[in-house]
Amino acid sequence: MKLSKRFPLNALRVFEAAARLGSFTRAGDELGMTQTAVSYQIKLLEETVGEPLFLRRPRQIELTETGEQLAPKVAEAFAMLQEAMASISGDAETTLHIHSTPTFASQWLARHLGTFQLKHPNVAVRLSSSESIIDFGRVPSDIAIRAGRGSWPGLRAHLLMKMNFTPMLSPTLAATIGGVHEPADLLKLRIIDAGDPWWVQWFGDAGVPDPGLQGRPRSRLGAQSFEAAAAIAGQGVAVLTPEFYTDEVAAGRLVQPFDILSTDGVDYWIVYPENRRHTPRIRAFRDWILGEFGQPLT
């Protein structure tokens, strides 16, 4: 039997797109096909497999159990084919797309990416950042650095670092009240984003169960790195992840008045699609960054 009969590659490509995008229409848009053509290719594959791969509902499709089993393997196979073609195309350079939270991007990645590129000179890096959680099926990205609890369906996740938090401020600001000697002293100063739940938790852990933050301004600066900049400028006390600001502490721009560290169970993770775990550029970056943080590869 011909390979094309046993493995209808066109139908498999259509299936991969439809499974990833959750829509025959969007799969057709991506592949330049009509919805009728997409439906035909899916039907052809179902006849080959001998079982339905999608449940068709009004305005919605959903993978069957068989479809769920097949989708990640087909996606991985096409990713491997794409990498194989790239490796013989004569273009030795490849681009790694990284999406990160703004704070991690500015306080860690930007300071260390040069080390990765020295080790992998043929990998160009494109870095973007936002607080939004991206959908790998719709946003062109290889890897994301996320803050969360490490559980995202369809994604492989590796812990990078624990996200502890504690108040930090300019030593000049601390001096305006004669120094910060106990947690309650912080309440004599402006609290940057008093509505941040980290504050309530930290004060509770520090033995101040009712810090009375309700009446204070709740302005949001959008990212921890911006709050740190405001704290360095002496505009208030920020609750920050101290691991990101060791240089600022060493230079005397910030102080951490207390050793009390809190956590809400949200940490930093590196994540990427499960079906792309063998992609060389993803594997290279994963191994490098886990090594930088001293984390085992699981």
UniProtKB/TrEMBL annotation:
GO molecular function, one term: sequence-specific DNA binding
Keyword field contains Transcription regulation: yes
Domain of life: Bacteria
Record's keyword annotation contains Mitochondrion: no
Any Gene Ontology biological process: DNA-templated transcription
Keywords of this entry: DNA-binding, Transcription, Transcription regulation
PROSITE patterns membership: HTH_LYSR
Domain HTH lysR-type: 7-64
Pfam families found in the cross-reference section: HTH_1 (PF00126), LysR_substrate (PF03466)
Family the UniProt entry places it in: Belongs to the LysR transcriptional regulatory family.
Protein's UniProt name: LysR family glycine cleavage system transcriptional activator
Protein species of origin: Rhizobium lusitanum
